[in-house]
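Dear Dr. K.,

Following up on our conversation at the group meeting, I've run the structure prediction for Long-chain-fatty-acid--CoA ligase from Ptilorrhoa leucosticta. I'm pasting the input sequence below exactly as I used it, so you can double-check it against your construct before we proceed with anything downstream. Let me know if the numbering doesn't match what you have in your notebook.
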Amino acid sequence: ELREAVEEVLPDLERDGVRVFYLSSASPTPGVEALLPAIEVAPDEPLPAQHRAGVTASSKAMYIYTSGTTGLPKAAVITELKLMMVASLGRMCGLRPDDVVYTTLPLYHSAGLLVGVGGGGVTVPVPCPPGATCVLRTKFSASQFWADCRRYNVSVIQYVGELMRYLCNTPKRADDREHGVRMALGNGMRAEVWKEFLQRFGPVAVWEFYGATEGNAGFINYTG
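The predicted structure tokens came back this morning:
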């Protein structure tokens, strides 16, 4: 989906020595590598310690481009410490290693990447066995949402903004409560939607939080 945007800035990235990957089995763009073949042949053993030599809590882990909550759009610096703090949100809300987290949110957004995928990796203390399983969907589909939850034995769902209202606006079905979802983690759900969601889809524990990618504080409605 971002091919044209990538190709537009690719010469600048190549000049700066930046390697670019598509998360696919093949690349249609000269100069951009395909990541899946490398992942498939990668060993299962932990990375050698020297790869982490010099990494501290204040080291830059990644940049996430924000829409401008605190001003103009910008690339926000995510340090190793902030990555771990945001990723630990799931564990604070009760995420378990045996959970299956369903994420339909884009992975260029903090919620999908740090809370969803990242949260699945820090559900138990280090050293640890594998964390929770994360089920990814390319795009959100209200009509297929609960079918996916049943198909993949989902126990935790993520939401942002009006996603829950879209689910409540779908035609009612006899199997609306036939799922294994026990927890919803996200932000931006209106009070009336919250009530309607629980009445229709069952006693799902809703953990509403607030945070900004470039912010320095966050809130969790831990009382429910």
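Two things stood out to me. The chain is about 30% helix and 20% strand. The radius of gyration is 19 Å.

Best regards,
J.T.
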